[in-house]
Task: structure prediction
Amino acid sequence: MHDEAADGATGVTRVTGARWVVAWDPESGGHVYRTGADVVFADGVLTHVGPGYGGPEPAQTIDASGCMLMPGLVDIHTHLFSEPMNKGMWDEVGSQRLYNTSLYEYLPILRPDAEGTRAAYGVALAELALSGVTTVCDLALPSAGWLDLLGASGLRVCIAPMFRSGRWLTRNGHSVAYEWDEAAGYRGLEQALAEIEAAQKHPSGRLFGMLCPAQVDTCTAELLRDAHDQAVRRDLRFHTHAAQSLSEFHEITRRTGMTPIEWLDDLGVLTERTIVGHGIFLDDHPWTHWHSPGADLRRLAERGATVAHCPTVFARRGIALHHFGRYVQAGINMGIGTDVYPHNMLDEMRLVSYLARVVAENPRDTRATDVFHAATVGGARALGRTDIGRLEPGCKADFVLVDCAHPAMRPCRDPVQSLIYSAGDRAVRQVFVGGREIVRDGRALTIDYAAAAAALEEAQGRALAQVRQLDWAGRSPDALAPPTFPGL
Result:
């Protein structure tokens, strides 16, 4: 495999002068603030984190004066190829007769063409980098040239090519139908394995993969089991959407007599390598009224599975996890994803905390400590990696410099709290992946963000022209998503 250091700094680099370093403390198993600490890396790997560096003379020095130096964020659930296209359309809609989800009636009808897909990738990847993300999981439909596009972004990317046994649709806006093609599911599995092998051989050295049977309700039991068997055989992670809508919860209980989480467990695919996309509608969610409250939470914890929590896309429709702090206290590994535009991980982290407090009805059950853990080592654990999400010798040199002198960071008594609750991406000064700088002074260096956004706007216009033909009721874009004011 190509050495990723060839894309970044070679030799020894010393990052010095940081006001704070968010370092990893192996004794406590958590992040800690360090002052007077330097971070040193060579060939893309950290060699020293702390005071008293006495190693080889650095070939170059990075001045981090006035900054917080923190590990890069790990985003474990995105759909980079499609979500940026939806901006301005699905912000305020949800199917009234399908418990307000947007999955079945809205999302399938705005389809990007090839140019729109590339533009969507450019916008999403730039937004991720600008918000301090250094590793991202791309749950995608493979497209021409996508691996090269991901490699050129400078980010570390886990590809998750989606496949399924059937597709969902609605023909009336109040019921979900399924059209099955089991052979297509297995063809998709084979394609996914081929794409993952190609990613592992990619010259960037920063791509890897996981298996992703797309949704618990669109995959047969056989496909889920066989995909998990392949994940075990190839030492890959396994990611599927489950417990993400009330309609899905009812569908799985109708088919099997079990909750979605219970069914995954019964199939033997709820394991320590499993990431459950969303995991909202458990047997004790207030909306499900199932007979075994608390069993799903215990299953997730006991099996060592991860929940990928993406609050924004659900909050827009009045839906919330019940609740983040409760999952953490149950012992469930939590990660965070940006499942919708904007792909701003720091905004997502803020909403994780605020929604959890609203649902819990107190400010104590979810703290910045928990949220930052989920966005770093929680995500890393979900991906089976101990070399990202923390600043410790032997880890990848994936880190972020946050400008503590930025007005939005001040007063800066607690820099992580100032970053999450106040400044957000405005204070992100520089981002490094494998020692290579990919963001400087609020500008993405590897992606033309403005050009991608302009191309995306044009692509959305082309997609909107096809909406009437794809909508079950033949509605116009304005009928589907009324503008804020008349006359748009």
In short: Residues 163 and 189 are 6 Å apart (CA to CA).
